[in-house]
Design a protein that fits this description.
The protein is an alpha+beta fold and about 775 residues long. It has 35 helices and ten strands. The chain has a five-stranded antiparallel β-sheet, with no helix packed on it. Helix 6 runs antiparallel to helix 7 and helix 25 runs parallel beside helix 27.
């Protein structure tokens, strides 16, 4: 006899009435015991009620796995009330990890073949929710038949089930290609939306489907034009926009079909312009359609005027009151600034205004875009705006802002004086946030600008006198005062305000830096060295400097103590050499863009003159240049005259006298090829360490689809040592795009034959692929 139990409504009330967790568990345990007893007794009339209660318990997070088999019994029942609860239980309690889900395949197949729409809908919903790859393969034909059923209710659910099947088993795409073309003629928006989603999935996973559906671009254009031009419809309009969900889906599909295809892009250009100009942006629905339109315009081969229109739409988004829309606009403009720099530049004032947004994510995006907009024509104005932002920006943005300003000044500085002033202002405002190389870069810049030595030392002295808390600024100022202290004490500089400085004031300022608790050990080292150099640049007595240096001879900091001891020794034993040792540093040629550009131009001119002497084809010249890396040509002794046509002779310009000949080159090796993905190995053995082998792994993709999430792992026998460097990326673009390279360093001290085991994991054509293979045919030169 079945033990009486609570009804579902009474169970819910009792659980909600429990005052503690323990009371709730007690109620649930007692009711689960009743449910188990009912299942054991096999009561068919009340099985669906018991399972309904169990599903509620499952939703609260308690175990309910013992109801899985009851779901199968209810699904096989001829009663609709049983099937409804059974299918709901299957969706909640079953998944691919449990073998029980395969047992309902026949039941779903039988229900799909029935003519009852409600039962077919339940079966399709369950299949699209938890259908595994095996179930999809078995039931694909049944779903295909339902795609053309008269009932719109069944067709809509069948389309969504087909989307799930394609995601699970991409090779089923050929089954669903023919029905899609007919479903595009549907007037039911739900079916049309599902069909567009299905076609999108097919195109993303199958190059053949992508080529097939490019024929329906005119039909998609017609559907979207009808949506844009139709009047207000209560059933489909949202905020005055006709079915924005369907519009967004069609635009997304058009973007996929028009990518890298001139004819399709030309077909949709007029429509995209119409959507961009006629869509209302006062509501979120219109903004969503416009944003998808912008993405489509920028991704296909659209006309230049249309691209400008798309960027102007993003510019209008920057004026929207919604923060999310402004963030999306900033992110999109940042992605487009490289390809359409001049069009994005027109919205520079609006972007700069976004720097003052109180929202941290918006101001960070605006900062990244502002830095990307800096060029040689606007560097002065943009740097001024960025420096103004640096003074008031949140602390978490100061490091990025300071680094960006310094990098922009390095690339586009109009004059050296402006460059120095910009760096000084950044160091004064946010010195503690700059990177470590900022000090070295500024000292190098000042050292190479002889005409600005007096100007720089006066500016830095004034800044140091005002604030000694910014450590990078203090370090640069101490270095500059030590190098050019004599210029500081001379008469006024024409480029600065008159500044009268006494020797005692300079020494007192450096002593203040040494004694300050804010000074880091490196900063004290700069100040101590500056005092030592001033001992040869000041006209007064150097006893005060000698006393300060001797004090730090017993400093706890080892580095500072060593400097002080060496400087004391210089005073005591080598005083006659002090002036020569501490003389000014020679002028330094900077590695910046201005000097490097001139040097690069002159070197390129020399190389071009040399290249004109040779009459070999251009390809052979390139090979000669590549051979320089391996040193495959050339003799042990360089010939007296330099023959430009012999690439190997250039190598010996860098060789020391009597250097051994370079090692022979090692042939490259192709180790993997599948569906357009190729993996090649190239080898180099450095002459200084013969036990070391450098293996460059180069992956290329000539297929029609991108290879994503590419990972290459390697293993060697225990007698070897292997080090994998970071790869250059994890995405291989289609049609022979940029390759991915990774360096392997193999140490072979025993010179044993090398064996290499590789594992490749990647996504290609919508599938996850893993390949493990062993390379045993490595050239003998790699280990002998």
């Amino acid at each position: 006899m079945v033990v009486p139990s609570l009804k579902l409504q009474d169970l819910i009330e009792e659980i909600r009435g429990a005052k503690t967790q323990a009371q709730e568990r007690e109620v649930i345990q007692k009711e689960c015991a009743h449910i188990r007893a009912s299942f054991r007794d096999g009561d068919p009339l009340h099985r669906h009620r018991q399972l309904a209660k169990l599903l509620y318990v499952h939703m609260l997070g308690y175990p309910a796995h013992f109801g899985q088999m009851e779901c199968l019994k209810l699904i096989a029942s001829p009663r609709f009330t049983d099937k409804r609860v059974g299918y709901l239980g299957a969706m909640l309690l079953l998944d691919e990890r449990q073998d029980a889900h395969l047992l309902i395949t026949n039941s779903i197949k039988n229900d799909l073949s029935q003519g009852i729409q409600a039962v077919q809908g339940l079966a399709l919903c369950t299949l699209s929710t938890m259908g595994s790859a095996e179930m999809c393969r078995d039931l694909a034909t049944e779903v295909e038949k339902l795609l053309l059923q008269p009932s719109s209710y069944v067709r809509k659910k069948a389309v969504l089930t087909a989307v799930h099947m394609i995601r699970k088993v991409p090779e089923l795409s050929n089954i669903f290609l023919p029905p899609c073309a007919q479903l595009l003629h549907e007037r039911h928006h739900g079916i049309l939306l599902g069909t567009i989603t299905l076609i999108t999935e097919l195109c993303e996973r199958s190059p053949a489907a992508l080529k097939h559906f490019r024929k329906v671009v005119p039909q998609l254009v017609k559907i979207l034009r009808t949506l844009v031009t139709t009047g207000y419809s209560t059933e489909h309009s949202i905020s005055g926009v006709s079915d924005p969900f369907l519009q967004v889906r069609i635009l997304h599909l058009l973007r996929i079909l028009g990518r890298n295809h001139e004819e399709s892009s030309e077909t949709m250009n007029d429509l995209l312009a119409q959507v961009a100009t006629n869509t209302d942006t006062s509501r979120n629905a219109g903004s969503a359609v416009l944003f998808e339109t912008v993405l489509t315009i920028m991704d296909i081969r659209s006309a230049p005027g249309l691209r400008v229109l798309a960027i102007n739409i993003l510019g209008r988004f920057l004026l929207n009151n919604d923060k999310n829309i402004r963030y999306v606009a900033l992110t999109s403009l940042l992605r487009m600034v490289q390809s359409d720099h001049s069009a994005v530049q027109r919205h520079r004032p609006t972007v700069v205004e976004c720097l003052r947004e109180p929202d941290a994510s918006l101001s960070r995006r605006a900062l990244e875009l502002s830095l990307a907009l800096v060029n040689s024509s606007n560097v002065r104005a943009m740097t001024q705006e960025l420096q103004s932002f640096l003074e008031s920006c949140p602390p978490d943005l100061r490091a990025d802002c300071a680094s960006g300003i310094l990098l922009a000044a390095e690339r586009f500085a109009p004059t050296k004086r402006w460059h120095i002033d910009t760096i000084l202002r950044v160091l004064t405002t946010a010195g503690i946030y700059v990177q470590d190389d900022a000090v070295a870069n500024l000292t190098q810049l000042i050292g190479g600008a002889q005409e600005l030595h007096a100007y720089s030392v006066r500016r830095l002295y004034s800044a140091l006198a005002e604030d000694i808390s910014q450590q990078p600024l203090v370090q640069v100022a101490a270095w500059c005062i030590g190098e050019y202290g004599d210029l500081l004490l001379e008469g006024s500089c024409e480029e600065t305000e008159p500044l009268q400085v006494e020797e005692e004031e300079v020494l007192a300022l450096l002593e203040k830096v040494l004694q300050s608790h804010m000074s880091q050990p490196a900063t004290r080292g700069y100040a101590l060295t500056a005092l030592m150099k001033l001992s040869t640049r000041l006209r007064g007595d150097s006893n005060r400097i000698r006393q300060v240096v001797s004090i730090y001879g017993s400093c706890l900091d080892v580095e500072l103590q060593q400097r002080a001891v060496e400087y004391n020794t210089l005073f005591q034993k080598y005083d006659h050499m002090r002036a020569a040792i501490l003389e000014k540093m020679p002028l330094v040629e900077r590695g910046g863009s201005q000097v490097d550009g001139e040097a690069k131009e002159s070197k390129e001119a020399q190389l071009s003159e040399t290249a004109l002497v040779s009459t070999e084809p251009q390809a052979s010249k390139l090979l000669d240049l590549l051979d320089l890396l391996d040193g495959t040509s050339g003799d042990a002794q360089p010939p007296p005259p330099l023959d430009p046509s012999q690439g190997g002779a250039l190598v010996h310009l860098l060789d020391l006298p009597g250097a051994p000949p370079p090692p022979p080159s090692i042939p490259n090796l192709r180790v993997f090829e599948r569906e357009g993905l190729q993996l090649n190995l190239s080898f180099v053995r450095p002459s200084g360490t013969p036990a070391l082998l450098l293996i460059m792994v180069t992956a290329t993709n000539t297929s029609g689809a991108d290879v994503t999430h590419f990972i290459c792992q390697a293993a060697v026998p225990k007698s070897f040592q292997l080090q994998l460097q970071a790869p250059s990326g994890d995405t291989l673009p289609a049609q022979g795009g940029l390759p991915v390279t990774q360096l392997l360093r193999v140490l072979n001290p025993n010179k044993a034959p090398l064996r290499l085991k590789l594992r490749l994991t990647y996504n290609h054509f919508g599938q996850s692929v893993q390949e493990i293979f062993e390379v045993n045919n490595l050239p003998v030169e790699t280990w002998q």
